[in-house]
Specification:
Among the domains are: 142 residues, Neutral Protease Domain 2 (Neutral Protease, domain 2), CATH 1.10.390; 106 residues, Serine Threonine Protein Phosphatase 5, Tetratricopeptide repeat. The strands form 6 sheets. It has a 7-stranded mixed β-sheet, with no helix packed on it. Strands 17-18-19-21-20 form a 5-stranded mixed β-sheet. Strands 11-12-16-14 form a 4-stranded antiparallel β-sheet, with no helix packed on it. A hairpin with a 4-residue loop joins strand 3 and strand 4. It contains 17 helices and 23 strands. By secondary structure, the chain is α+β, with helices and mostly antiparallel strands. The chain is 35% helix and 20% strand. Helix 11 runs parallel beside helix 13 and helix 14 packs parallel to helix 16.
């Protein structure tokens, strides 16, 4: 395996390329030098400022034949352009219409291959002709049977963290922003969508044109192709989905405009023009992906009662934290996700009330503490720090509740120490002053300390960021409603018939807390009476069902195993898959069952999910 050194970034993006159309934003600071261990790019020599992409999507060969035209900003002594690629079949590189020699370097397991192209300081554009491979890691090609309507094939991308390079030769680092335009040809009758200005109806000839005027990093490049329909939810929002899903999705997301308004009241104007949602087939590996202008969402959030729409609030919040102010490298991932969870909770509080949002916060805190304990037992204590060192590793290793929920708790503790009004003032200014720029952990600390102006707080910022686990004085959220749930659980454990418990007004969050709190010494008869009374095995809420299936595996409650297999085969969301499979492999019998199910389910999973599960299940 070829080990490569990290990339030294001198962020030379011009002021123009990093301004919104209104021109309100300050230029990127040339002083923020960052080492990105996950990119071959050398932007201090030549940096991509715009991508013009022409592509032909072929479902028969499961490939995309494309041309990427890259506009460059070069240093005075530029000689080479370095791009990130992974598994691309590059057929030619052209400068000014003339073919030039190029070098595709030896591949690294995680980073792929550096594409080295000779340039001069005067080189303005480089054209690359290439075809993706059928196994491109970012692309998932679905047969009609794997979709909701089961009539047409489907394609979607997942570029985060470093998979954009498997479908576009690009400088694939979150520290580099560029605008893009695209022309995409797809089979007639299908609709193409990107993280850009999008159509709302099917093109007659299968050709689509896209513009993204705001600069984005490569991980926010996105493409989806399928038999899709659109329904408006308001003046600047709507939802795309397959026909059989559209009405349910529109009802579930009907509060979207209220969420956008609530977010703007908190931290300033929405800067991306429109905010639409695309409900993907079940194999999508995440709950949602914050692709600008078009969030990709899992159908598992369509619970029928809006109980899981906090995910939408989360992805919307990314329009500020992540998309607008972006972590410079994946070692700073908590800056994207911790801020977003904090923002998400504030949106949920604004729209649904403090009592409701505190249940969400308390559940997240419970999960965080469990994950910290688990990671510490596994010898991964360093990964419980907010600032990570992922050099030589897959950046997906940092996608844990540490970045999300420990990051959130830090910001929540800062809010409670300073007072909400003052902390809101900092955050609003943070998003405005750093809009369309990148952020490091160290720069955040510097800006926050400058904001404090010497004021002391009880929060040890650097201990939260650079030390493992949670500080001993961390204030954790609690929910009075969960105390009532605990009281009902105790009644059951003391012999009360579950049908007599006071559960009539419980939300799915209370049910989730109830199931998670079931003790390890429950007997099968108790599980059965709970299931007979509340039909947990038949739950349509994926969060509640996952918690119940984990308990079923723990207690060998076999009546749930048919649903367990059906859920694992049908659902591709890694958040649900990992804990269920992890519980199954704790016993020999469970691991045998896990491997048998995984053999059936694996073709339905995206690379992001199989990359995690292959390692967990020791699949070669």
């Amino acid at each position: 395996m070829h080990k490569t050194k990290g990339v030294y970034f001198a962020l030379l993006i011009t002021a123009l390329s990093c301004q919104s159309p209104a021109g309100e934003d300050k230029p990127v600071k040339n002083t923020m030098n960052v080492t990105d261990p996950h990119s071959y790019a050398q932007p201090n020599e030549s940096i991509v400022t715009h991508l013009e992409w022409k592509a032909d999507v072929n479902f028969d060969t499961k490939t995309i034949k494309a041309q990427a035209s890259l506009s460059l900003d070069n240093s005075a002594d530029a000689q080479k352009l370095y791009l990130d690629t992974k598994g691309l079949d590059i057929t030619g590189v052209f400068i000014g219409g003339t073919a030039v020699d190029f070098v595709l370097k030896e591949a690294d397991e995680h980073k792929g291959s550096a594409l080295e192209i000779p340039i001069t300081p005067a080189t303005q554009t480089v054209d690359i002709h290439y075809t993706t491979l059928p196994g491109a890691e970012a692309l998932q090609w679905l047969s009609p049977q794997q979709t909701a309507d089961k009539q047409y094939p489907f394609l979607f991308t997942q570029s985060q963290a470093i998979l954009a390079r498997s479908w576009v030769p690009i400088q694939d680092s979150p520290g580099i922003r560029f605008t893009y335009s695209a022309e995409v040809a797809v089979p007639q009758g299908l609709m193409a969508l990107m993280s850009a200005e999008n159509p709302t109806s099917v093109s007659a000839d299968g050709k689509y044109h896209f513009q993204m005027k705001q600069p984005i990093p490569a991980y926010l490049l996105a493409l989806a192709v399928g038999k899709l329909e659109f329904e408006s939810l308001g003046p600047r929002s709507g939802v795309y989905a397959e026909s059989s899903v559209l009405e349910k999705a529109a009802t579930e997301f009907e509060d979207l405009e209220s969420m956008i308004t609530a977010a703007e009241k908190l931290y300033g104007p929405y800067r991306w023009d429109r905010y639409d949602l695309l409900v993907l087939p079940p194999s999508f590996p995440f709950g949602g992906m914050e692709n600008p202008r078009l969030t990709f969402a899992t159908p598992t959030i369509l619970a029928g009662d809006k109980s899981l729409v906090s995910l939408v609030a989360h992805e919307l919040a990314h329009s500020w934290s992540g998309n607008l102010v972006t972590n410079a490298t994946w070692n700073d991932f908590w800056l994207n996700e911790g801020f977003t969870v904090y923002f998400e909770q504030r949106i949920m509080e604004q729209v649904y009330g403090r009592d409701y949002s505190e249940m969400l916060a308390a559940l997240a805190s419970q999960g965080l503490q469990e994950e910290i304990d688990h990671m510490t037992r596994e010898g991964k204590e360093n990964d419980t720090k907010l600032k990570l060192d992922l050099t030589g590793r897959n950046p997906d290793d940092g996608v844990t509740s540490i970045a999300y929920d420990k990051g959130y708790l830090l910001l929540r503790n800062l809010e409670e120490s300073l007072g909400r009004d003052k902390f809101d003032g900092f955050l609003k200014d943070y998003f405005q002053q750093n809009a369309f720029q990148v952020m490091t952990t160290e720069e955040f600390i510097s800006q926050f300390e400058e904001f404090l102006e010497g004021q002391d707080t009880r929060v040890d910022l650097k201990a939260w960021i650079y030390q493992p686990g949670l500080p001993v004085n961390a204030i954790l959220p609690t929910s009075d409603r969960f105390s009532l749930v605990d009281a009902e659980l105790q009644k059951f454990l003391q012999g009360a018939d579950p049908s007599g418990l006071n559960t009539a007004k419980w939300t799915s969050h209370e049910w989730l807390h109830f199931i998670r709190s079931l003790p390890s010494d429950l007997v099968l008869a108790q599980l059965k009476v709970l299931d007979d009374t509340f039909n947990f095995t038949g739950s349509g809420n994926a969060e509640v069902l996952t918690a119940w299936l984990i308990q079923s595996v723990k207690h060998n409650y076999t009546p749930a195993y048919e649903r367990l297999e059906e859920f694992l085969v049908r659902t591709g969301r890694r958040k649900f898959l990992s804990p269920i499979y992890s519980e199954m492999i704790k016993t020999g019998e469970g691991k045998t069952m896990a491997l048998a199910i995984y053999e059936k389910a694996r073709p339905n999973y995206h690379f992001v999910a199989t990359n995690t599960l292959d390692e967990m299940l020791a699949i070669d």
